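Newbie here. two chains, one complex. Structure please?
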Amino acid sequence: MVAAGLLVGIGTRLANGCTSGHGVCGISRLSLRGIGATVFYLLAGGLTMALFRHVLGVI
Amino acid sequence: MRNLFAFLAGGLFGLGLMVSGMTDTNRVQGWLDVFGAWDPTLAFVLGGAILPMMLAWAYTRTRARAFLGTGFPGKPEPHIGRNLAVGSFLFGAGWALAGLCPGPAIASLSYGGLGGLVFLAAMIAGMLAAVPIKSRMTALG
């Protein structure tokens, strides 16, 4: 929980946005930054789930 | 008036997060589990939110100011830099680990118990820590 919270906090500030900010507000105005951010966080989310659930089996 | 509308908008957003399943950490993790038992239903939340938001953005182009008098945010430069890429990547990893992103993390104060509180505290610490990290990354160019 601590590690996850830190990652989400740092990531949101570095990228200037989160799921709603880039995903909803960004994509809906066809902003390249919003679409790019969404691609990156979904990719990271998918890889993290694969690693921690299917390789390490911890979540 | 502004505060009243901020309160109503925040309440509506929180209600939407709860009803749509975005606050259900198991569902969020299922949605990100594309290499396992993938649960695609949350894609409809993103899609369902993008549609009315597109209409709202289109409507803002017909007005100079919002009803409450403030201007609308400008469209950013279409540039994907290192901050955006690295930040979004870290964000996605944390989102998958806990199944929480910033909106639901705040909403979890009402139902999430200690775990949600710990996540929220760590998230705020991360946001504060990101300020010096960001200026250093920007300085690197």
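Moderator note: The CA atoms of residues 49 and 55 of chain A lie 9 Å apart. Chain A touches chain B through 48 residues (CB under 8 Å). Thread marked as resolved.
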